[in-house]
Design goal:
With about 280 residues, this protein is of the alpha/beta class. The chain contains 11 helices and 9 strands.
Length: about 280
């Protein structure tokens, strides 16, 4: 087996490499990831051995090479692919592990320059992830360190089935879609404000938690957030976990209380304020 690893977030990578070494999987890597793996004491090869080229343009071009992407995208059951593989002597990868430059973190930091933000638009990473996800029938593709433990257990047990590969691939397309949306939103904010309103509005929210139930007890529910605003980001001080209707009422109370300049308390039932007090000092 051959694995291609190029990650920004190196959490859990040492443990994953232990697994790959234990199953005699050959590891290829790039730049800082290559150094990290070497420093952990694992045998690792540079992708230079496959591409014949060092990374260029200050690291902008590392893995964007036919030998890399052919090794990911090739389908050995396709006669034309098989012919090209043999003719060009291309080695096939079995595993791709990649996570991307932290565009959202950098783009929302007040300390970041515009050039730094643009430089954190990852190109090679999404290309590898999407290529491996497209070829999920043969490839294992991972971006989330939280999946390392699960895939390690399955690799050791030789039980990585098609359903697992498909689930991982599905996560990739959702992840890269969200990543591109964040780039689009950033660039759109910096466009001329006289441009027409977008024909399509897309929201990217992260699940905070599952709820006790949905709008009705027999329904499932979950709360999602942009991790910035609203009651979903408040801390529960007392009582049982919130339900859908609890959040709905809390949201109504939150906005009612914040509609007044003075300190305000809002008591809500079925999204209607049935008690409200606004005063400089609520203890008076």
């Amino acid at each position: 087996m051959k694995a291609l690893i190029s990650v920004y977030d190196k959490n859990g990578l040492e443990q994953l490499c232990e697994t790959l070494e234990s199953i005699n999987c050959q590891i290829y890597s790039t730049g800082g990831t290559l150094s990290f793996i070497e420093n952990c004491g694992f045998k690792v090869s540079s992708i230079f051995e496959i591409t014949g080229h060092e990374e260029i343009l200050d690291g902008r071009v590392k893995t964007l090479h036919p030998n890399i992407h052919a090794g990911i995208l090739a389908d050995p059951e396709n006669p034309n692919h098989l012919s090209d593989i043999k003719k060009l002597n291309i080695d096939l990868f079995d595993i791709v592990v990649n996570n991307l430059y932290p565009f959202e973190k950098v783009s929302t930091s007040t300390d970041s320059t515009y050039s730094e933000i643009i430089e954190n638009i990852d190109i090679g990473g999404p290309s590898m992830l999407r290529a491996a996800a497209k070829n999920y029938k043969r490839m294992i593709v991972i971006y989330d360190p939280k999946d390392y433990h699960m895939i390690s257990a399955k690799l050791k047990a030789k039980s990585v089935d098609l359903e697992t590969r498909k689930e991982l691939a599905t996560k990739i397309f959702k992840f890269t879609s969200d990543y591109d949306s964040k780039i689009f939103n950033f660039l759109s904010k910096n466009e001329n404000k006289s441009l027409s309103i977008s024909e399509k509005l897309e929201l990217s929210l992260t699940k905070v938690q599952d709820l006790r139930y949905g709008e009705n007890p027999h329904q499932k529910g979950a709360v999602y957030s942009n991790k910035k605003n609203g009651v979903a980001n408040l801390r529960l001080l007392h009582g049982k976990e919130m339900s859908y209707l609890n959040y709905l009422d809390a949201d109504a109370a939150f906005y009612a209380a914040n509609s007044f300049s003075k300190k305000c308390v809002s008591i809500v039932k079925h999204t209607n304020s049935c008690g409200l007090s606004s005063h400089i000092n609520q203890l008076d």
